[in-house]
Recover the amino acids of this structure.
């Protein structure tokens, strides 16, 4: 695929991992943050930036405004605010890859989901930004696996959900570039409910195994191969 200008909104572990991964495969990446000067001065961010000199840092609006594709890597509870800061006009018509999970940690551990069953965070974002082409993906695995799934030694599964087939094709091409071998298109944006509701089980598997270096693998029977 052609190299794209990509904004990754969020400078946490997911934003940094995805930005680094997308830059590695040739895209021009800018991270979005509230206060670029303040973020650049943070020790953890500065150490990461020194190893990724090609990745830019800008406000949410500047990053999204200069991009052809936008990634939402903000905390689920702040995602709508971050996307509002990015500006609806800077998202309109663009593919918006949503990685966020609707986790509510306000009542301790384990977190609950603040939207589920009959709605999802991805649908909420799509309703808030009807002109953006929202695709939910990558939220079902740890950030290191998002950009290096082959570290597991075999193909595992990642899902895409969204209403725009062309947007899902762009995200699927990015996923293949990052090393994902099995991409399942679940359907419209409402199908993001399942991948978001996987989180409570992901958390329990994480605790049971004592680590986050695992992923889902859908094994097809002979009639589905
Ligand atoms: N951690 C994982 O491996 C993993 C895996 C799958 C999915 N996810 C999901 O991916 C998303 C990102 O995860 P993360 O751990 O990287 O995120 P995080 O560290 O919690 O969030 C980082 C971003 O949130 C912004 N932020 C925090 N409070 C804010 C506020 N009040 N208003 C506006 N922005 C605010 C920060 O902005 P500044 O840059 O300005 O500080 C920062 O860019 C989450 O939704 C998470 O559930 C995480």
């Amino acid at each position: 695929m052609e190299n794209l200008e990509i904004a990754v909104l969020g400078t946490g572990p997911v934003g940094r991992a995805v930005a680094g991964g997308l830059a590695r495969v040739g895209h021009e990446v800018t991270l979005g943050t509230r206060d670029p000067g303040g973020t650049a001065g943070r020790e953890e961010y500065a150490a990461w930036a020194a190893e990724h000199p090609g990745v830019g840092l800008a406000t949410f609006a500047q990053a999204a405004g200069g991009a052809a594709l936008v990634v939402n890597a903000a905390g689920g509870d702040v995602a709508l605010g971050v996307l509002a800061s990015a500006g609806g006009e800077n998202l309109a018509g663009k593919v918006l890859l949503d990685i966020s999970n609707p986790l509510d940690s306000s009542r301790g551990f384990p977190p609950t989901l603040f939207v589920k069953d009959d709605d999802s965070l991805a649908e909420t974002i799509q309703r808030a930004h009807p002109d953006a082409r929202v695709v939910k993906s990558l939220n079902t695995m740890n950030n290191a696996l998002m950009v290096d799934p082959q570290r597991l030694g075999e193909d595992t599964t990642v899902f895409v959900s969204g209403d725009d087939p062309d947007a899902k094709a762009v995200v699927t091409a990015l996923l293949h570039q990052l090393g994902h071998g099995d991409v399942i298109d679940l359907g419209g944006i409402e199908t993001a409910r399942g991948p978001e509701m996987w989180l409570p089980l992901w958390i329990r598997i994480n605790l049971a195994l004592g680590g986050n270096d695992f992923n889902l693998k859908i094994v097809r029977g002979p009639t589905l191969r």
Remarks:
- The longest helix spans residues 165-178.
